[in-house]
Amino acid sequence: MSLDPAAPDQSAPEPPDLDQLRSAYEELRAADLRLDLTRGKPSASQLDLSDGLLSLPTSTTDAAGVDTRNYGGLEGIAELRAMFAELLWVEPEQVVAGGSSSLMMMRDVLSFLWLRGAVDGERPWGAEEKVTFICPVPGYDRHFTLLQWFGIDMVTVPMNDDGPDVEAVAALAASDPSVKGMWLVPTYANPTGSVCTQEVAERLASMPTAAPDFKLFWDNAYAFHHLTPQETKSADITSLATAAGHPHRPLVFASTSKITYAGAGVAFLAGSVDNIGWYVGNLSQGSIGPDKLNQLRHAQFFGSPQGVRDHMVKHREIIAPKFDEVDRVLTERLGGTGVASWTKPAGGYFVSLDVVDGTASRVIELAKQAGVALTPAGSAFPYNDDPRDRNIRLAPTFPPLADVTAAMEAVTTCVLLAAAEKRAE
Ligand code: PMP
After folding, report:
1. How confident is the model at residue 6 (pLDDT cuts 50, 70, 90)?
2. Per-residue pLDDT tens for 366-408?
């Protein structure tokens, strides 16, 4: 899926020289652009798709007869748990439907591990001398800043097209008892678009770990976010882990943030029945129940698991042309130049662009001066440290299509200029 930097194409026209690129860049600056490709947010027209929610729920009692207006039901309402259990391939009792943010659930889970320890752990993680996480890179910035906030050490492994470099993961997990867990966005990863294959997932589920309470944070934020009609299925990590004798290893996260409303969706946690009981027990120290009315309106809005899949097709129709446009401009302007490679994801919210080593921060700075906001350099790496200073995350869903075109044209000029400056050094 990712392209190697293309070898210079013999038949391609001579690349523009430094002076030509400088004047192209000055023209760009004079155009006074105000464009933003920084965050993976749904656009307003995507949010409009879910406005049916605004007149729901039509009743306030759930399928089990519970009055959703009242306290209680920390694990979430039965019909929404059942719906997402089917989508995530677990039993309803293996799912919690919670508040509106899965990231907050991840922080809660880490807090509970830190303060109370895991169901299969000997002591709270906070009582360990050192806790280390394996982080596939490039990855999701907020995963890394959350670990940093806890004081958890991070070691990186490469993210490949088929998931994390599983040999590297297995070696780290087997040899060091401080390695307590790892992040993974298994499907259409942020930002590479990689999809973790069944084989890689099987290895992650079964590999021996020095820590008995090793946890796989399986953040399936983009499980249903296909950009093509081929709807890739995520590996069934909970079954694989159970079959391998490690039922408590995976903690599966998902949410409807990029299905319905990014600020008012529903987040889910799935895992072993013991993990779910552990989570709800700890959660009860700070909550008497979630927003069940929001959960009920989501259940009514979707109607069924198929309703979720059908809804995602409407998102695809809006955003796939934006991803096509990113690829078109990159290919037309940078293809064959040897100065960049990029992913062509089949789903998710991002394109990962690699430029000439040592120039990503310069590209981002040039783009900023020209009025195009890009995610800060290094943000897809722990401690903001991209050792090769080459990775740039592009997020094309939020701006209108015409802005995506203009922003990408500007980005390619900056990539070419930074590469030419580097050559001239
Ligand atoms: N995980 C990943 C990989 C994400 O990209 C995002 C959103 N950018 C989130 C989690 C946040 O999810 P939520 O809105 O459910 O907190």
Report:
1. very low
2. 999 999 999 999 999 999 999 999 999 999 999 999 999 999 9
What are the tens digits of pLDDT across the range 225-248?
999 999 999 999 999 999 999 999
pTM to 2 decimal places? 0.96
**Which CATH code for domain 18-46+310-424?**
3.90.1150.10
For strand 215-219 and strand 250-255, is the pairing parallel, antiparallel, or unpaired?
parallel
User: Residue 239 C-alpha to ligand 1 middle, in angstroms?
Assistant: 24
H or E segment to which residue 169 belongs: helix 166-175
Ligand 1, from 37, 100, 103: best to mutate by most atoms within 8 Å of Cβ?
103
Q: Report which ligand 1 atom has the smallest distance to the Cα of 256.
A: 15
Distance 22 CA to ligand 1 centre (A): 38
Domain assignments of the chain as residue spans, ordered by start:
18-46+310-424, 64-304
Class of domain 64-304: alpha beta
Strands 35-36 and 95-97: unpaired
Task: State the average pLDDT over residues 22-37.
Answer: 95
pLDDT confidence of residue 39? 85
pLDDT in tens, 80-89: 999 999 999 9
101 C-beta closer than 6 A to ligand 1: yes
Q: Which residue lies with its CA nearest to atom 8 of ligand 1?
A: 40
Percent of the chain past pLDDT 70, that is, above it, reads: 96
Q: For atom 2 of ligand 1, which residue has the closest CA?
A: 221
Q: Return the DSSP state at 397.
A: S
Structure tokens, 261: 């409303």
Decide whether any atom of ligand 1 lies within 6 Å of the 204 Cβ: no
The span from the CA of 164 to the CA of 142, in Å, is 18
Q: For residue range 50-77, list pLDDT tens digits in order.
A: 999 999 999 999 999 999 999 999 999 9
136/165 Cα distance (integer angstroms): 8
Which residue puts its alpha carbon closest to atom 6 of ligand 1?
A: 221
The runs of H, that is alpha helices, within 335-388 are 360-369
Cα angle value 356/227/328 (rounded, 5°): 45
Nearest residue to 376 via CA among 386, 340, 219: 386
